[in-house]
Write a structure and sequence with these properties.
Blueprint: H1 2-11, H2 13-27, H3 33-64, H4 71-85, H5 95-225, H6 231-235, H7 239-242, H8 248-251, H9 253-280, H10 286-319, H11 329-339, H12 346-358, H13 375-388, E1 395-397, E2 411-413, E3 424-429, E4 432-434, E5 437-440, E6 442-446, E7 480-481, H14 483-496, E8 499-502, E9 510-516, E10 519-525, E11 530-533, H15 541-552, E12 559-561
Parallel strand pairs: 2-6, 7-10, 9-11
Antiparallel strand pairs: 1-4, 3-6, 4-5, 8-11, 9-10, 10-12
Length: about 550
């Protein structure tokens, strides 16, 4: 056994096997498949020879120990190894089986090498991806830091800009306040300038008036110095002589007349339509809206005339103790009113108009609004009506009543009228008259059956119409006496010294009788029974003429003059 072992060591089989393995490993990738297989087979053959020599040594060693020596070692180590992964190369194992085992071993080793290489490749790939991911992460982190720095910079700039904007806003507010103060100052200066211009116009009118008066006085002085058949009459301060000097009101009458006519036309074409559009927001019925505007216009004229009479009485009372001019007291009063139209309390007249409209039986209005909506329109109408009273003769509205006969000289038909209808259903705009002549036509709506058309009313329903007659005048017709005419009659009767007494009998219709200077009229009023009797004679014939003219303004009234 020792000799065999010595030969095995001296041949250096394991060293040669190791050298071949190293050489094969170096040339493995350079050799072809067949060459690698040949190398492997050589190594297997060499290993088999070495194993054969080792088994020979094992056999000799076991035989030297006897029958039972080394049994436990063989059982524990050799037999399990032989049973699991090794087959003896003796006559019991064929060459094909050995070759298949070698091939399987080679394939397993190849698979193991492939797996190892793929694993290493994946590891390298993952390491490269990890490095690239780390680079990207570093780049993103750097971008984030840059964005944070930029955000901080933007915040600082925004804070600075905000402070600058607030300062600019404060500065603009201060400039706006200064501009508003300057605008108010300019407005006050403009108002003062308007006052100055108004005073200049008044002074120019005064100058023109004084110039005309001066020329008249010079002509009069020239005529008085020249030989005349009646020299005493030219020098006597008679009323006839004083009346030759025109006042400012007389000098500007034509221009004021034209201006007021133009203003009245503007009221119809502009302010009336604006008021109509305003009322249509609350009232759907166009007829009721037009009735309200028409009645408001009529009431405004009445209130302005009443205010003019009262204002004229106050001016006459004020000027009468000190009047000593060349013109008459009446001319001086009118001239003063023309010069001081701004003293007219137009708001008081508007309040009177609204009060009269609130109790008027022909119009209705929603309860949630008031006639104060028409305040601006009524104010302008009152101003125009007040200024019209300063003309000679004064301008007034034509008397109108629903159901009257349509007159082409007084009215124009509205677009929705029935042109074949002879009666007026209701009025849209009153006609303007100068004395008895119509100078501006009104507008009316004509429809058939106007007298029997139903009317809405704000007041309670009255009893059916039953005409009455007084003894002594059984055949007189009874016509409605409208409230504005009643108030005008009341004013004139008060000016002339007559008293008006209300009779206790009430009803839908009543009888009115006025007796003055042989003028006797019978009317029907909707408010109650009124009787006007003269408590004393009028102070002058002109007052009596006014009263008779007022009584004659009611249409179709029976008048007996004795």
């Amino acid at each position: 056994m020792a000799d065999t072992l010595r030969r095995l060591v001296s041949t250096s089989s394991f060293s040669a096997l190791q050298d071949k393995l190293d050489s094969w490993l170096k040339d493995y990738h350079l050799l072809s498949c067949d060459q690698n297989l040949n190398r492997c087979c050589e190594l297997v053959e060499l290993t088999a020879r070495v194993q054969g020599q080792l088994f020979a040594v094992l056999s000799q060693t076991a035989s030297e120990g006897g029958h039972y020596a080394g049994v436990e070692t063989l059982k524990s180590r050799l037999l399990p190894w032989l049973g699991s992964c090794f087959a003896l190369g003796s006559a019991g194992v064929s060459a094909d089986t050995s070759l298949s085992l070698i091939q399987e071993s080679v394939e397993k080793e190849k698979r193991i090498r492939d797996l190892s290489q793929s694993h290493e490749h994946e590891i390298h790939k993952m390491e490269s991806q990890l490095s690239s991911t780390r680079l990207e992460l570093d780049s993103v982190r750097q971008d984030l830091e840059d964005a944070q720095l930029e955000l901080d910079d933007t915040k600082n700039k925004s804070a600075t800009t905000l402070l600058a904007t607030e300062d600019e806003i404060l500065q603009l507010k201060a400039e706006l306040r200064a501009a508003c103060d300057q605008a108010d100052l300019y407005k006050r200066k403009l108002d003062v300038l308007d006052d100055y211009e108004r005073q200049i116009r008044l002074l120019k009118d005064e100058v023109s008036f004084l110039t005309a008066e001066k020329s008249l006085l010079r002509d009069r002085l020239t005529r008085s110095r020249s030989p005349s058949p009646l020299p005493r009459r030219s020098r006597s301060p008679s009323p006839l002589l004083r009346s030759d000097s025109p006042t400012r009101a007389q000098l500007t009458s034509s221009s004021r007349h034209a201006r007021l006519l133009s203003r009245f036309g503007d009221l119809y074409s502009t302010e009336r339509l604006e008021a109509q559009n305003l009322l249509r927001r609350y009232i759907d019925e166009l007829e009721m809206v037009q009735r309200i505007i028409f009645i408001g216009t009529v009431e405004a004229f009445h209130a302005a005339k009443m205010a003019y009479r009262q204002f004229k009485l106050r001016v006459r009372k004020t000027l009468s103790p000190t009047h000593a001019g060349p013109e008459s007291l009446e001319d001086a009063v009118v001239d003063y009113i023309v010069r001081n139209l701004d003293l007219y309390d137009v708001q008081a007249s508007v309040n009177d108009v609204i009060s009269a409209m609130n109790v008027h039986p022909k119009i209705s209005f929603p309860p949630e609004v008031d006639f104060i909506l028409l305040g601006s329109f009524l104010r302008e109408v009152c101003r125009v009506a007040f200024a019209m009273q300063t003309l000679e003769p004064p301008l007034d509205l034509a008397f109108s009543t629903d159901g009257e006969l349509y007159s082409e000289s007084k009215y124009r038909r509205s677009f929705d009228s029935e042109y074949s209808a002879p009666l007026v259903a209701y009025h849209v705009w009153p006609a303007l008259v100068e004395g008895d002549a119509v100078i501006m036509k009104g507008e009316a709506v004509t429809r058939r059956g106007a007298l029997w058309s139903p009317r809405r009313s704000r007041s309670r329903s009255s009893s059916p119409v039953r005409p009455r007659s007084r003894a002594g005048s059984p055949s007189r017709p009874l016509l409605p006496l409208y409230p504005q005419r009643v108030r005008e009659l009341d004013s004139i009767l008060a000016d002339t010294g007559c008293k008006v007494h209300a009779s206790p009998q009430g009803g839908a219709h009543a009888h009115v009788q006025e007796t003055l200077y042989g003028c006797r009229s019978a009317h029907t009023a909707e408010a109650g029974l009124w009787t006007a009797t003269p408590s004393s004679l009028p102070s002058s014939a002109s007052d009596a003429g006014k009263l008779c003219q007022m009584l004659a303004s009611f249409p179709s009234c029976a008048r007996n003059r004795t």
